[in-house]
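Trying the structure run again after the queue cleared.
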Amino acid sequence: MRRIAPLCILTISLVLSGAVAAVRPEVSDEPSGYELSGQVSVPTGMRPAGIAVLVVDSGLYTTTDAEGSFGLPPLPSGPYDLLLLREDLRDKTVSVEVEQEDLHLVIAMEPAALLTGHLLLENPADPLQGSTVTFADRSTQTDEEGWYLLDLGQNEPSTVRFEREGYLAAEVTLAVRGMDRLDVELQAAGEHRLTGTVGDGLEPVLGAQVLFQGSEASEPREQQTDEGGRFQFERCPPGSYRLVVTAPGFERVVVDPLALFSDLDLKVILTSVVLSELPSCTTSGRISLRTSRQRTTWLLLSIGLLAGLCRRRRVENMD
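Done. Tokens:
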């Protein structure tokens, strides 16, 4: 028995040491991830800072510093897609393969060609929304405030067309590098007719002088009203005008500005010069005298009252 005991002890020790070796974890020399860094270059005159670098479908992102450098948290081995974004640069996607070592990228980005601006219409009454801005096969429409944004897709000189129904189309050729602003005003298309009637409230006024003028540099156009008090001006370009109506015995009427962006028919009522100088007569309410017939009646009544007062005083003096 004494000879067997050491052998048993040795056997048990070997079994226990094997069990310990079986549960001991293996130590790997491979790190938990690899660094992915890079340097982004941009065209001369553009700053390299502030470019967003996103790892697609991972939630990881960073931005470039003042020198255009960036670094991402350690990544496991495998394929990745990086998306680089900034408003004035074209979006860029870079596919990389991380293979058990740190990776440094050199990426060049091109300027975007974004054109934005405010599209105005000559007639302020027309809605701003819905005008079309087009370059090649790219187009957009203005919003309710007249703003637009169009990606031209190239930095070479491009001809951009601005269109709106009822207005003359405009074309502008320019080279856009990054994001540029261009404001455009469209001129109304076609020619229009201005007609009107001049009267005193009861009947038309014959021979009233009608002066019609556009900009200060344009020649004024004049007419006299016919027996029906009518006047008419043909072939008037759209725009803002000034209309002056004068007639003997009446106050001058001025309409300024007169917006003419479609055919227009006016009714002009003149007020007598004599009538405008007379006070209003008040009984139960105010009575405004605005016609030649009322003016004549007022004058006759006034003369009759004055004559009656004179006769009464003369009789009183005789008594």
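The CA atoms of residues 48 and 67 lie 6 Å apart. Worth checking whether this holds up in the mutant runs.
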